[in-house]
From TrEMBL:
It holds the Pfam family HVO_2928_N. It comes from the Archaea. Residues 3-171 form the HVO-2928 N-terminal domain. This is Helix-turn-helix domain-containing protein. The lineage of its organism: Archaea, Methanobacteriati, Methanobacteriota, Stenosarchaea group, Halobacteria. Transmembrane segments: none annotated. Residues 183-231 form the HTH bat-type domain. Keywords: Transcription, Transcription regulation.
Length: 257
């Protein structure tokens, strides 16, 4: 089996839901389950983010799912779109959705289902302006067919880039994950990696990164420290198979700061 990983990048103003991700780097969505045929798609997504942003997500989704004229990313009209929040907390949503598209070139899940058929396995993740897809495919010819159809159908405001075609990596046991981190701490870690804080030598200091993010230096340092402590506890528990006693929920630490 081969893992085909590619990303669709959105320009701002193209898609109302993706605009929310672009404007709020702390908002993150990842599929828990997704199933598609050449015409229909069912999926469960886990979203994490600040409370006010998730409330905006609720409002936008409620609007677009009842709006006429919505199109998929490859241009086919959405003829049916059902949406339901199955679980709701201040910083997390579990969302079920069903969508069906009409005539035209369908969105990625439908294209993948058409070329792969029964047994399709895929994952999707949204953050910032990027919508990344991972497909498990058993031959390179199918990879080329999916790539060409998606590439040719995308609008001028969307771009396609391929990250890898390789042995499966993201489908192995995940190990340490980020679902337990508050969005603020996750965003702090991501920024630290992006700006080379963990490289040797460091490309940027915490002070320099905080200036770029327009966040107080002490706040960023605190979030990094708590996120690093959480990752260390997760490593001991997940990788070494032992439990860390009296583990503190990082969300509680964030609230008590």
């Amino acid at each position: 089996m081969r893992e085909f990983v590619f990303t669709i990048e959105y320009e701002e103003g193209v898609d109302e839901l993706m605009d929310l991700f672009i404007e709020n780097p702390g908002l993150h969505s990842k599929t828990m389950a997704i199933h598609a045929t050449s015409e229909s798609m069912w999926r469960l997504d886990r979203l994490t983010g600040p409370t006010d942003v998730l409330e905006q997500f609720d409002d936008i989704t409620e609007y677009v799912t009842h709006c006429d004229g919505v199109k998929g990313m490859c241009g086919a009209p959405v003829v049916e779109w059902d949406f339901e929040v199955l679980s709701r907390t201040p910083d997390k949503r579990i969302v079920y959705s069903f969508r069906e598209e009409g005539d035209g070139v369908h969105s990625i899940p439908h294209i993948a289902a058409k070329h792969i058929g029964d047994g399709l396995l895929m994952q999707a993740e949204r953050r910032g302006n990027q919508y990344q897809w991972r497909l498990l495919i058993d031959d390179d010819d199918t990879v080329g067919e999916i790539y060409e159809e998606v590439h040719d159908a995308l609008s001028d405001d969307l771009s396609l880039s391929v990250q890898r075609i390789s042995e499966p990596e993201c489908w192995l046991e995940a190990g340490v994950g980020s679902d337990g981190l508050p969005p603020e701490q996750q965003a702090a870690l991501e920024a630290a990696v992006e700006y080379g804080y963990y490289e040797t030598p460091r490309r940027h200091t915490v002070q320099e990164i905080s200036n770029e993010l327009d966040v107080p230096n002490s706040t960023l340092q605190y979030r990094l420290t708590r996120a690093e402590a959480w990752l260390a506890q997760q490593f001991v528990s997940d990788a070494l198979g032992t439990e860390v006693e009296d583990r503190i929920d990082p969300a509680e630490l964030e609230l008590s700061a």
